[in-house]
Specification:
Helix content: 25-40%
Distance between the termini: 30 Å
Shape: globular
Structural class: alpha/beta
Number of helices: 8
Order of helices and strands: EEEHEHHEHEHEHEHHE
Largest sheet: 7 strands, parallel
């Protein structure tokens, strides 16, 4: 049976109605938040794309109070100086707080080994369709091999069931959004996705019930 949503909203479809405020200055606003075991001064993350986050961006984000995600196009293991050429060592060796992305096609045993070796605090499963068997299996496998406390971020999904299944697989935080970015053509090319504001509303509701956080 065809399941058609009655309405779906993106950010351009709505405005926030202004209401009474007691805030006199922006300096009085606290933007700190928690993602899994990670405390952040600002709720901003540099995305896990090779055109967005490398070691320099990760360092800058850490200094500002957020963090960056080292993209999965970097090699897992280094050749020569691992602090310069590997996905894990390039940030761990500089005492930078950052996350490291991995994909389902990575050697997952290497991901586990390097994460344990460098005591990586944040791992991100990087896959376009996070609500798939191979994504859930990969997240479970990596989580089961970690020997220390790690915040595991999984995604991307755009439905409540996607959130529930990722959390069941071991995700502490869930990334929300299928093709919402200005540079992403997923929804245009494939006709697959959910308008981002509706996706956030649905996924955040489920995440609250399960006691986890979301990233959008």
């Amino acid at each position: 049976m065809l399941n058609v949503r009655s309405k779906g909203y993106s950010f351009d479809d709505v405005l926030i109605a202004p209401k009474y405020s007691t805030v006199r200055s922006r300096s009085h606003v606290d933007l700190s938040t928690t993602l899994g075991h990670v405390q952040m001064r600002i709720p901003i993350i540099a995305a896990n794309m090779d055109s967005v986050c490398g070691p320099k961006m990760a360092s800058a984000m850490d200094q500002l109070g957020g963090f960056g995600v080292m993209h999965r196009n970097m090699p897992i293991r280094g050749k020569g100086d691992p602090l310069q050429t590997s996905r894990f060592g390039s940030v761990a060796g500089r005492t930078i707080r950052s996350a490291v992305a991995f994909g389902v096609n990575d050697n997952l045993d290497d991901v586990i080994s390097e994460a344990n070796s460098w005591r990586t605090k944040i791992l991100v499963l990087d896959i376009a369709h996070g609500h798939s068997k191979h994504a859930l299996d990969a997240l479970k496998y990596v989580k089961s091999g970690l020997e220390h406390e790690v915040t595991m971020i999984g995604g991307n999904v755009a439905t409540r069931q996607g959130v529930a299944d990722l959390v069941d697989a071991g995700a502490d935080v869930v990334k929300v959004g299928i093709g919402p970015g200005s540079a992403c053509s997923t929804r245009i090319v494939t006709g697959v996705g959910v308008p981002q504001l509706s996706a956030i509303a649905d996924c955040a509701y489920e995440a609250d019930l399960l006691g986890v956080e979301t990233i959008a």
